[in-house]
Amino acid sequence: MKKTIALVLAAMMLISLVSFSLADETKTLTIVAWDANTTGYLTAQKEAYEASHPGVKIEYIDVSSQDYDTKVAAMLAGQDKSDIYMVKDIPALLNWYEAGYTYDMSDYIKAANYDLSGFVGMETNYAFDGKQVALPFRSDFEILFYNKDLFDAAGVAYPTNDWSWEQYKEAALAIHAADENVYGTHYHTWLSTAVNYTVADGVNTLVDGNYDDLAYFYQLIQDLEDAGACMSYSEIRAAGLHYSGAFGNGNIAMMPMGYWYVATLITNIASGDYNVKNWGLAAMPTKEGVQAGATFGNLTGAMINNLSEQKDLAWDYIAWLCGEEGSKVTAGTGNRPAWVSEGVADVMSAIEGFPADETSKASLLPTYVAIEIPGMEFTAQISNILGEEHSAIMSREISIEEGIENMNERVAEVLGE
């Protein structure tokens, strides 16, 4: 009997030692993010990574979205050792890099022979002085939404993924001509939805100090406004009309907008709050000489803290998160990953309510995504100048030529030219 009890106690001690050993082997990866408790894709990413990486736990440190960049700067300056920081915008990342808070992942990328092609150029926006200090995992790029029923009623062919801006204009005019109660297209009041397509060529930027290239797009919009094919900027501003409800009314044939609108559109159609029933997506039109499928967008990324004591593990997570596997998890939540591939497109297009046509699915495979406005010392000042002149041009207070001249002169002063 005593021998049996001794054996039982020995077994219990062994189990305890094994359990302690396993618990001791568990590693916790700390990730600083904004709105971590209410952002669905963060929860999905955590659960998927933990399930495929036994012995690793993800712990989010939640920072409010409104104060994120400021609070993160204070945390990093205070020698915080959290492993990974999510990147909200490029100017903030540039500041962190210049302060020495970011870790260069170039050696990890080289050692792992990590494929960067799926980022279609987006990763370069996170590289400073040849150092890759972050990688993107989300990108809400600009895409063309359209109402199939209005195209059908007007007898106009649907947009394709290689449309030119001239074809876009012709379709908008034709649809409005067929029914004066229908707008061929719609522009929200932002600078981005009006003229930022100029950066899709990979040459022009909104911080280079020369804005002559914007004239083409301003003229395009004003021609459409004059023809009644889209609502005027002043009309939209006066009514306080939001783009989501405008397209949802069902009398707008096309609308350039960020991919994030997909989730809103699907939800409101399902609930019956929108009059739109049959809709589709297409790549943004391009100017002559710009590759079809090129567009622009904003990025959300992840960086390794230079003071992290688990850099290998942090890299493993970022490589997973930003690559094919993690991107499919992000896509499954209805969000647009930065990674571009057929596999990711399959996941995105399989979401209930997504258009079933091949053009819509293929539009999820952009050939190039330029950053809307890159980070630099004078980004905030330049953005303010462009916004002011944009409002003056669009409200017809000044001519396109005058507005462009003002942009060139005012930004030149900021740049010290």
Topology:
Blueprint: H1 2-25, E1 27-34, H2 40-52, E2 56-63, H3 68-77, E3 84-87, H4 90-98, H5 106-111, E4 127-128, E5 131-132, E6 135-147, H6 148-154, H7 165-178, H8 191-195, H9 215-226, H10 233-239, H11 243-248, E7 254-258, H12 261-271, E8 279-282, E9 294-304, H13 311-322, H14 324-331, H15 342-349, H16 358-362, E10 368-371, H17 379-394, H18 400-415
Parallel strand pairs: 1-2, 1-3, 9-10
Antiparallel strand pairs: 3-9, 4-5, 6-7, 6-8, 6-9
Helix pairs in contact: 2-14, 6-7, 13-14, 14-15, 17-18
Concise structural overview:
With 417 residues, the protein is of the alpha/beta class. It has helices at residues 2-25, 40-52, 68-77, 90-98, 106-111, 148-154, 165-178, 191-195, 215-226, 233-239, 243-248, 261-271, 311-322, 324-331, 342-349, 358-362, 379-394, 400-415; strands at 27-34, 56-63, 84-87, 127-128, 131-132, 135-147, 254-258, 279-282, 294-304, 368-371. The longest helix is centred in the first third of the chain and has 24 residues, at 2-25.
